[in-house]
Amino acid sequence: MGEIEDIRARLEAAPPVADTRSDTLSVALDAFGVLLSCCRDSQDRSVELFPAFTFAATAAAEGRHVVLTAPSLPDQGLVTSRAACVQGDVEVIADALAGLAGALSAYLSAAARHARDPGDRAACHDAAEQAGQVQALLARDG
Predict the structure, then answer these.
(1) Using CA atoms, how far apart are residues 36 and 60, in angstroms rounded to an integer?
(2) Fewer Cβ neighbours under 10 Å: the N or C end of the chain?
(3) Number of structural domains found in the chain
(4) Please, what is the Cα angle at 66 between 60 and 69, to 5 degrees?
């Protein structure tokens, strides 16, 4: 759970800026990497949550791909997912990931509003939608 908390703290500490600096995009890329890894690590741990984690992993992968298209993001080379992410109660993990995805969606939405480059604006907007999809898939009803 520490990796989820750490990346969420980085999101909160790195407010989106008007020029969509590379660090703004890099933290978003890292957040999608954490979402993707944790969803993949968790999907086989619960029959009930398998579909949610699987679809959330797909949305996280798409969000990561979209961030990689942002013109202001420096060349990242080969981007891979992190190794095993978290252990513990799978429902608690889903809640933590839904919270991270919600924070990421809000962060990227703000970055989209402030970005000067149209390509960055589009990438942030589209990536925010993918993060919102992850949140919707993993959030518990009610």
Answers:
(1) 5
(2) C
(3) 1
(4) 150
Structure tokens at 35: 């979402």
Q: What angle do CA 70, 74, 5 make, to 5 degrees?
A: 80
Q: What is the extent of the structural domain holding 73?
A: 2-138
- Global pTM reads 0.88
Query: Quick check: 124 and 70 in contact, CB under 8 A?
Result: yes
For 104-136, what is each residue's pLDDT tens digit? Answer: 999 999 999 988 899 999 999 999 999 999 999
What would the pLDDT profile of 7-65 be if each residue is shown by its tens digit?
Answer: 889 888 876 665 556 678 889 999 999 999 999 999 999 899 999 999 999 999 999 99
The domain spanning residue 78 has which CATH number? 1.20.1260
